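Hi there,

I know you've been waiting on this one. I reran it after we fixed the sequence typo, so this is the corrected version. Both the input and the resulting structure follow.
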Amino acid sequence: MEDPIIGKLPRNIKDWFARAVVGMIWADGYIDKAEIEYLKGIIGCINDPMIVHSTLEMVKENQIPPLEPVRLDEVQAYNIMRHLATISIVDKDLATAEENFLKYVGVQLGLQKEVAEKFLKGARKRLSGSRFVAQLILGDEAHDVTCFGFTENECMFFCERSINPLARLTLQLYREQDRKKAGKERYQPIVAETMWCRAVKSQLGDYVIKATFKHTIGEGEGIRLVFHNKQTDHKHKGRLKPSNSSLLGFYVNCYACGKKDIPFWQLRLKSMHSKNNLFGIPVYDKAMGENDFCDFNLIQVAVCPRCFFASNQLDSFQRQDKAQTAALFDTQAFNMKWQPSTQKRKKIVGDNNKWLSSEKRTAIQAIRSYQLAVETHDKISRVCIDREVINHKRKSVSFLLTQAELLMNQGEANRAKLNLKEAERRLESIFSNLEKDAGIRAAFILVMIKIYFNNYEDIGSYLNFLNNYSKIHTVTTGSSELKALNHAMVMTKEAWQRRDEINHKKMKRFHLKE
């Protein structure tokens, strides 16, 4: 690949550009073969062995390199944006994370936001129509071409050579659409005639030709391949139909890497009966009415199978049945911290990741999902500001407590106790910043953990917090705050009275005998 503009950049800007290329490749959390091929071509125009070597090493590091602000002339900056926009779609997909990274590069280049959006609009347009590999037969010549813009009566295609108007030609779509894998098997030939031919600048060919068909294309000529829409086979406006009658299902997309079609489950209201354990975690014991039984603790965490982003919060994902919305966290800053540890999370999932999309999980698989959820919300908390930091830390505590319940039931009491200790440490670190319901629940959990471990030294401060809460704060009758307070006071009082029974050395489960 030759690019005189990139080739003439100062060495430090070439290095910056190389880092931007690596960042774009890793933006969605994985590398496609097509991206590697494009990378090889683009670093060739840098023409600096040391930068080429460092670029390849950065790719192996599985992370997005930092980019400091730089100032270039408009032609240079636009050329860099053009290359990065191309990289974003060489894998035939434009992930949200890739869009955000291109916007981030634009900011670092000092460009207006509208400039990045212009390049994104162009990238989306290039993706809007499906492309199909075919063989063009023109007289005694045969060429591999890329077709697009199909209707039943015409199409366009990229070609390496020009073709005269009204020339007679035939097209045969390959049955295997991966150009490298495409063998000799092709659909029946489509007889066509050239309408016009125009010179273009494209990696797919030097010319675009529009052709009309001599007859409407039929089944044997690849019409299913051209017009069949795989996206509508199993989805209806992002809804997912579960086999368990107690569940609702949605298809969601991952804000972090852009992965689509991730199953997300919700429990139907009044479908399951549950009892809380010592620490207020619901444990599902039987179905209500005619509903199927579902241990929702096993499947409530949705996990992206590409980057392993995990959460039981629906607003942590992009719903497919809703209008496009921005993520509630800084996805660019998040990915800088998230992508380097993808391989570590992959080991947590295991070699077979099919369970991630199943509505049936084992306790071991569920325990892994909570581990991923803790890591996810820990990372989000590091890129948030103000109250959101506290909210994500609280969510992580909730995951630790639910995971502890599952671990205890699996006979892994030592690991479960470590979870409780970690939950205690985290809650104590944020307790002074919690307000209303959140502060009440945190005080309740801290009291229960301290009783469980027979640690009575500083339990008084949390009991006093609950006992004096209504004297210090105005609590509205019927509010969730009052309900949380009444429940916490009743449960902690009972726990204190039964503290001899609530003992980590005696209890085999986190439940008292009734």
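Quick highlight: Residues 203 and 259 are 26 Å apart (CA to CA).

Best,
R. S.
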